[in-house]
Structure prediction request, 332 residues.
Amino acid sequence: MSDFIQQRHKLSTNLVHPRELIVACVPMRSNVNISQIARTASACAVEKMIICGTASLTKKIARDAISELTVSTHRSLGPVLKKLKEDGYDIVGIEQTSNSKNIHHFDFKRRTVLVVGNERLGISDEILAQLDSVIEIPVWGLPHSYNAASAANMALYEYCRQFPEG
Amino acid sequence: MSDFIQQRHKLSTNLVHPRELIVACVPMRSNVNISQIARTASACAVEKMIICGTASLTKKIARDAISELTVSTHRSLGPVLKKLKEDGYDIVGIEQTSNSKNIHHFDFKRRTVLVVGNERLGISDEILAQLDSVIEIPVWGLPHSYNAASAANMALYEYCRQFPEG
Prediction:
């Protein structure tokens, strides 16, 4: 008899505070990536996601994020990030830049906007100039980068690890 | 002038030891998921991956994992996990089960096989009986589960966070 009996679709963990994390994607190439990020964000109980331009979620991939996440669409991220900064959010991008911090040693603030870059172009100079911090996920092998959705996934995991109760 | 200047495709971090982590996937539905896991594993400098049945990697998604990862294909995971256990590997599954441990509080052993379950069926009873530990990634919202590749991604991130030098 195994010690481990499947209990799939267990009840979720309760948060003590609502998540004060917002995920904001620059204009991206792939709605698949955006939908994967949305699914993970929703399972993490993130309530808000910002996407740009003509991006949209695919129900088959995003699953319950379609109904659970409030997704707002903007022409570009600049003005909305400015507003969120005024509202006290720490604006944190995932990118490889000068003066970036290793995510392993980065303490997120509870009230954070996580900015996800384009698959090919990353985060533009204009948006980089609005960030409070840039975090990098270490890479040890080829290809010397993670897929954009995978990187967002890891950052969501790390944020939730630091705030398991919201 | 922004503090943050893009430095995409920076050199990777060096490992002090080769990674003693092996990723093993049960027979899965989607080669896309397997290929996404392979890309992340390769970027983490994992050297070996085990897949089952007719699974294969898609170059467009797996990228350099095609050349960098040693991928071995087996009919089923049972015999190969038995052999790896004899070789001193800790066999750890990602699944929702009784007696599972929250990944946030789980100390990986360096020499680990990470077992990834099927998208719908998870890890079978037969394979669960071979595991030393089961880890769960907390879920706070709907859908009450992560995509299989996303969960594998997060577990790879956590392992590498614990062993940044290999």
Observations:
- Chain A is about 30% helix and 20% strand.
- Chain A has one domain: 21-162.
- The mean pLDDT of chain A is 95.
- Chain A touches chain B through 66 residues (CB under 8 Å).
